[in-house]
Amino acid sequence: MGLRERIVEAAEQVIQMKGLARSTTKEIARVAECSEGSLYNNFESKEDVFLHVLRGQLKNLMQVLTALPERKGTRTVQENLEEVGIAALEDFYHSMPLMASIFSDPGLLLRHRKGFISRNEGPHRANEAVEAYLCEEQLLGRMKENIDPKAAADMLLGSCFQYAFQLRFMDGELGEERKRFVHNILDTLFQGLAAKKDTL
């Protein structure tokens, strides 16, 4: 494992234990067994380290969303969205403590928000990717023309996020029911989405 990977892994451990606001680069460097100078040689700031940690937490969802444009016209729309939903639910569940910690410090949140804007990144990008995919499926006639792709994307990812929050808050485990949850959400959603029965 390289130094950058060690620092990111150490940062995740420290943030999980102390929360983002109370984590320091000194403590992260200690856990990574390197100097603070080495940390700053690899990352611009603590916020930069946190961003890399968070990206790692959402890697499954990012992989699925990256492959989503190639899925248009293949399998069924519902199967493609189930893949998105399951990855989103798993990643939201595992990253929830890290995502929540950013709201504990308004100044930190502001700096992160500015950083996301400057890099043209942010949580809305996942919704936009699903929306773009659904627009393509609409053009192929596999979804009703009067359906709002943005609303459909928001309902799917919003439901997954809220369910992950509930589980974390109640100290629940994310087991096999995650597949059933996503399937049920999409079954309900697809009563109004699908253009024809045979496209399900």
UniProtKB/TrEMBL annotation:
InterPro entries: Homeodomain-like_sf, HTH-type_TetR-like_transc_reg, HTH_TetR. Keywords: DNA-binding, Transcription, Transcription regulation. Residues 1-61 form the HTH tetR-type domain. Pfam families: TetR_N. The keyword Oxidoreductase does not apply. Residues 24-43 bind DNA. PANTHER family: HTH-TYPE TRANSCRIPTIONAL REGULATOR RUTR, MYCOFACTOCIN BIOSYNTHESIS TRANSCRIPTIONAL REGULATOR MFTR-RELATED. This is TetR/AcrR family transcriptional regulator.
